[in-house]
Amino acid sequence: MVGLSLGEQTFIKGGIEQDLRTDGRKRLTYRPIFLETGIIPQASGSARVKLGATDVIASVKVELGKPNPSYPDKGKVSIYVDCSPTAEPSFQGRGGEELSTELSSALERCLLGGKSGAGTTYEHMTIRLRSLHIHLLQFLVSEFAPGAGIDLSSLCIVRGKKVCWDLYIDGLVVSSDGNMLDALGAAIKAALSNTVIPKVQVSANAPSDETPEVDVSDEEFLQFDTSGVPVIVTLTKVGGHYIVDATTEEESQMSSAVSVSINRLGRICGLTKRGGAGLHPTVVLDTISAAKHVSEQLMNKLDSEIAAAEACDEMES
Amino acid sequence: MGLKCLAQHYLKSTGPSFILTKKNKPLRRRTASLSKMEFVNPEGLRLDGRRPMEMRQLRAEIGVVSKADGSAVFEMGNTKVIAAVYGPREVQNRSQQSNDEALVRCEYSMANFSTGDRMRKPKGDRRSTEISMVIRQTMEACILTHLMPRSQIDIFVQVLQADGGTRSACINAATLALADAGIPMTDIVTSCSAGFLNGTPLLDLNYVEDSAGGPDVTVGILPKLDKVTLLQMDSKLQMETFETVMQLATEGCKAVASYIREVLLENTKQLESRRGV
Asked: Name one Pfam family in it (chain B) (predicted).
């Protein structure tokens, strides 16, 4: 990206102060969201989301696998994001690896609640609250639902048997104009609602130590339950105010950004803070409540777009 | 031998390719007896209902990546490819800068979900490096690099869906993207592949036909100048048969060229109307 001149920087910051951004939006308004589902025929579920000029594709592949021995009644999910060089010439070769890893781990944190998948996020709160605010922290933690985000136990086929579903979620950033995390979160949510998992019959008479025989049905499918899947809202701090859905220019002027993933029940499933500037704890709590407010609108918008896309899809097929 | 190329790319093929169905049928069932498979049935129809000299449906769109200087999506049946061009711009690596001509770089990468089985490594493997080099050499032949010394042109190709003929789709997409970027070229480059199975030359192989182990000839031409810039072949062929197959692929390239010209003309008309001309 070409650097911004001092005049342009002042213009962006000044606009945000006055609640009128460069493209005419208010601080807490998203760009128009364009959503398509079922674009990858060979995947179990897929979606493409365009957030202004940011274009991402997410695909979900479902395969049979063995569960983690420490969590025998849960399936496994792995998220991998690839930044295509078509988005940015600097992503050529291994240039995009850093950003890919950052996005993949941020998504894992937001959608799975960390590596364990258990959902407790004491360790993910990267800010230390002073003793005065401890009671607030405790209040917040009670909102962190266990197993938040994607429910891994729904991926278990038969409890106790060594078979479970492995979900491979792949994201591809085709074009980037800021706010890739939100777009990827939306694309993954849409792809998951588009995902169908085949029904399986597990042979009951196999000994419990060996891999049982599984008969994967070609005809019957189950829709993946996405009511608990959160949306990710990133709030970028520019100057003294927060904006939602920053473009690349606005992101270049940011001091810090907080990404919160909230699901339909209003529960926080994950939290990430990026950027160098330090934040006062009350400011962070402010951001979280602002994110909650914005997420309701975003959630409704996404759900209606997904329903429309699925209806379109069904009409075509 | 008059080759009537039924390259009616406006004809819809009778359905999606065998392997890429919505319900993710596993590929393994097919590969067991490929050598005994019938690729052209007695009525003269291929696996996806096409005739031997019929191309898959073509679809192209220009200007999909707004950030890039030029970009295009090209679809050949179920193979879908995005190309983005950044340039001419300042050379990033000064040591590679040339005082006489522009530096052309190309990278080919496949998405994780592009093939039936999920790929582990999207880029950096040998096949991707080879195809990157092939595309670069092909495009370099047609770009007027001496008009832009000390600059760099980046061509990035991303495969979204792979169903055979990715190389050709990439070159066609790159041509459109370069035209969209306004980079001067001597002629457009178009590419198509052809093979020989069950004693019949087949145009535009899909993945199943490609993995059958038969010969696969990929040809890239400059249609107006009638010159061949790319010629690759897998497996082996008799000399006379090779001439037939190559001629068939060249006809396919010409059909793609006429489609590309239509798309570019349509795009120019839209630009004209937007500018109020």
From this structure: RNase_PH_C
* pLDDT in the model for residue A126: 35
Q: Which amino acid is at A75?
A: G
Q: Do B118 and A61 touch (CB under 8 A)?
A: yes
Q: Phi and psi for B198 in degrees, rounded to 5?
A: 50, 35
Handedness of CA A13, A84, B72, B27 (dihedral sign): negative
Instruction: Calculate the CA A105 to chain-centre distance.
Output: 10
Angle of CA points B193, B195, B198, to nearest 5°: 155
What residue ranges define each of the domains in chain B, with the CATH number in brackets?
48-270 (3.30.230.70)
Q: Hey, is the C-beta of B20 within 8 angstroms of any chain A C-beta?
A: yes
Calculate the average pLDDT of chain B: 85
Question: A38-42, B157-161, B181-185 — which is least confidently predicted?
Answer: A38-42
Rounded-to-integer distance, Cα A212 and Cα A65, Å: 11
Q: Which of A23, A56, A86, A173 to mutate to test the interface with B (most CBs of B within 10 A)?
A: A86
Token digits of residue A7? 């005049």
- CA–CA distance from A26 to each of A15, A20, A33, A116 (Å)? 10, 5, 16, 38
Q: Summarize pLDDT for B112-141 with one digit per residue, the tens.
A: 888 877 766 656 788 899 999 999 999 999
Q: Does A214 touch chain B (CB under 8 A)?
A: no
pLDDT at A111: 81
Question: Listing from the earlier edge strand, what are the strands of the sheet with A45-51?
Answer: A33-37, A45-51, A54-65, A164-175, A76-83
Helical packing angle, B239-275 and B166-181, nearest 10°: 30
| Mean pLDDT, residues B211-240 taken together | 92
What is the average per-residue pLDDT within B251-264?
96
Q: A196 contacts in B (CB within 8 Å)?
A: 23
ipTM: 0.81
Pair A251, A234: CB distance under 8 Å: no
Whether A106 contacts A185, CB under 8 Å: no
